[in-house]
Design a protein that fits this description.
With 266 residues, the protein is an alpha/beta fold. The chain has 2 domains: 53 residues, Transferase, Pyrimidine Nucleoside Phosphorylase, Chain A, domain 3; 151 residues, Nucleoside phosphorylase/phosphoribosyltransferase catalytic domain (Pyrimidine Nucleoside Phosphorylase, Chain A, domain 2). 50% of the residues lie in helices and 12% in strands. The protein has 11 helices and 7 strands. The protein has a 3-stranded parallel β-sheet with strand order 3-6-7, sandwiched between helices. Strand 6, helix 10 and strand 7 form a beta-alpha-beta unit. It is globular. 42% of the residues are buried. It comes from Eiseniibacteriota bacterium. It holds the Pfam family Glycos_trans_3N. One of its GO terms (biological process) is pyrimidine nucleobase metabolic process.
Length: 266
C-alpha cells in the first residue's frame, strides 16, 4: 500500500527498526489516512511501532502539521482583535475555562474555544455547558464568527471539518492501546487549537493524584512539548504545571460547577 508516492510498509518497518521519519513522509502518511488511502490496519501497526520506539520533536511537529492540514483552519484576523485560548489537561472541579474565557473576552480578546468532553474521572467543559438548558455546543462556522464578533467568546465542540484526521487517529489509538504518549497527545491537542484560529494558547498541565499526569517531571515534559510544537506552528504559547491533588473550587459536578463559575463572574 502506498500513499503519495511512498510505501507505507516501509514507513512501518522504519519505525519498527527505530529509524526516524522525514517530516514530509509523516505529513503524506496522515494525508493518505485522512483520504482513506491508507487502511486502518497499517495505521494501527505504525501506531504501535511509534508507541514502543518513539517520535522525536521533528516527527511530533510533522504529525501535528498533518492532522492540522486534514481540515479547515479558521482565520479571525478580519475581526481586528487578538485571539487566544486556554487548554487544560483536566482535573476534578476544573471550571477555569468557564471563568477565564469571558474575562478575556471582556478585555477585548477573541476566544474561539473548541472544548472537549470528560475523560475518565475528569469533567469536560462541553459536559458542563450542556447542563445549561438549551445550550448548543455545535455551531456552523458562520454562527461561530457572528458570536465571536458580537460577544468575543464562543465555546463549541469539535466539528467535522476541524482536524478530522485527529478524530480518526484517536479512535485507533483508543482501541490499540496507544493513547498514553506525549508525542501522540501533543499533536492531538495542538492541531485542534491551531485549527480553531487562536493566535496565542495557554496550557494548564495538571499534575497530582487527581490528574492523568502523576509525576511532576512527566507533566513538565508534556508542558514543554506543547509549547514547543505550538510555537513551531506559528502561534504564541505558554504553559503552567498546576497541582491537582484536590478539587478546584468548592463545587464538583457539571451544573454545580457552572453555577459556581457564574457566581464568581458576578
Amino acid at each position: 500500500m502506498s500513499a503519495d508516492g511512498f510505501d507505507v510498509r516501509e514507513l512501518i518497518r522504519a519505525k519498527r527498526d527505530r529509524r526516524a521519519h522525514a517530516p514530509d513522509q509523516i505529513r503524506a502518511f496522515v494525508a493518505g489516512f485522512a483520504r482513506g488511502d491508507v487502511p486502518d490496519y497499517q495505521v494501527s501497526a505504525w501506531l504501535m511501532a511509534a508507541f514502543l520506539n518513539g517520535l522525536d520533536a521533528a516527527e511530533t511537529d510533522a504529525l501535528t502539521e498533518g492532522l492540522l492540514g486534514s481540515g479547515r483552519r479558521f482565520d479571525w484576523s478580519a475581526l481586528g482583535r487578538p485571539t487566544a485560548d486556554k487548554h487544560s489537561t483536566g482535573g476534578v472541579g476544573d471550571k477555569v475555562s468557564l471563568i477565564l474565557a469571558p474575562v478575556a473576552a471582556a478585555c477585548g480578546v477573541l476566544v474561539p474555544m473548541v472544548s472537549g468532553r470528560g475523560l475518565g474521572h475528569t469533567g469536560g467543559t462541553l459536559d458542563k455547558l450542556e447542563s445549561i438548558p438549551g445550550f448548543r455546543t455545535r455551531l456552523s462556522p458562520e454562527a461561530i464568527r457572528a458570536q465571536l464578533d458580537r460577544v468575543g467568546v464562543v465555546m463549541v465542540g469539535q466539528g467535522p471539518d476541524l482536524a478530522p484526521a485527529d478524530g480518526k487517529l484517536y479512535a485507533l489509538r483508543d482501541v490499540t492501546g496507544t493513547v498514553e504518549r506525549d508525542y501522540f497527545i501533543v499533536p492531538s491537542i495542538v492541531s485542534k487549537k491551531i485549527a480553531e484560529g487562536a493566535g496565542a494558547i495557554a496550557y494548564d498541565v495538571k499534575c497530582g493524584n487527581g490528574a492523568f499526569m502523576k509525576d511532576p517531571g512527566a507533566a513538565r515534559a508534556l508542558a514543554l512539548r506543547l509549547v514547543a510544537t505550538t510555537r513551531a506552528l506559528g502561534a504564541k504559547a505558554a504553559a503552567l504545571v498546576t497541582d491537582m491533588s484536590q478539587p478546584l473550587g468548592e463545587a464538583v459536578g457539571n451544573a454545580l460547577e457552572v453555577r459556581e463559575a457564574v457566581a464568581l463572574l458576578r
